[in-house]
Amino acid sequence: MSKSTSLLSKAIMVEKEVELPTTTGTVTGPSVGAGTLVLAAGVELIDAMDSADYDVTVTDGTTTFMAATAVDSGSAGDFAFGTQTQGIVAAADTIDVTGTATASPAATVTARVWAIVVDVNEATAGADEVDRDQLA
Questions:
Q1: What is the CA radius of gyration of the chain?
Q2: What is the pLDDT of residues 80-117, one digit of tens each?
Q3: Sign of dihedral through CA atoms 60, 66, 67, 69?
Q4: 131 pLDDT above the threshold of 70
Q5: What distance in Å separates the CA atoms of residue 82 and residue 98, rounded to the nearest whole number?
Q6: Residue 66: what pLDDT?
Q7: What is the dihedral of CA 107, 108, 109, 111, to 10 degrees?
Q8: Cα angle value 70/72/77 (rounded, 5°)
């Protein structure tokens, strides 16, 4: 029996608003489950970045989904979408943003870390096994 379209995994966006570190450091981003494929990831500046030299990286600590990308003197609403690497998150984890400041910003900068993800675990229920089929 074929799988029902409603049982197949779909790409979704996960996101979390974070305060970027004023020096080099990592902040926790959105949570993802085991067996999640990260298709793309990035950062949106909510506040303007007044640092003349600040890079952001998006990673789960194992895979760097977005390589270090400059957000120097970025404006509110700017997106950082640098070199991308797709990867599977093997165990439940978070997708974090690492800031590297050669010139620290004068104030805290709020950003949104986001990722487009798909659960690639096996769909375990066939179309004849879902509740709605049993209710008829």
A1: 18
A2: 999 999 999 999 999 999 999 999 898 899 999 999 99
A3: negative
A4: no
A5: 13
A6: 98
A7: 180
A8: 90
Structure token digits, residue 66 = 């977005």
Q: Which residue is associated with the tokens 């570190």? A: 21
- 116: exposed, middle or buried (Cβ count in 10 Å: 0-12, 13-18, 19+): middle
> How many CB atoms within 10 Å of residue 81?
14
N residues, the chain: 136
Q: Give the residue carrying structure tokens 């409603």.
A: 6
Query: What average pLDDT is seen over the chain?
Result: 89
Retrieve residue 34's tokens: 């085991």
In the 3-class helix/strand/coil scheme, how is the chain assigned residue by residue?
CCCCHHHCCCCEEEEEEEEECCCCEEECCCEECCCEEEEEEEEEECCCCCCCEEEEEEECCCCEEEEEEECCCCCCCCEECCCECCEEECCCEECEEEEEEEECCCCCEEEEEEEEEEECCCCCCCHHHCHHHHCC
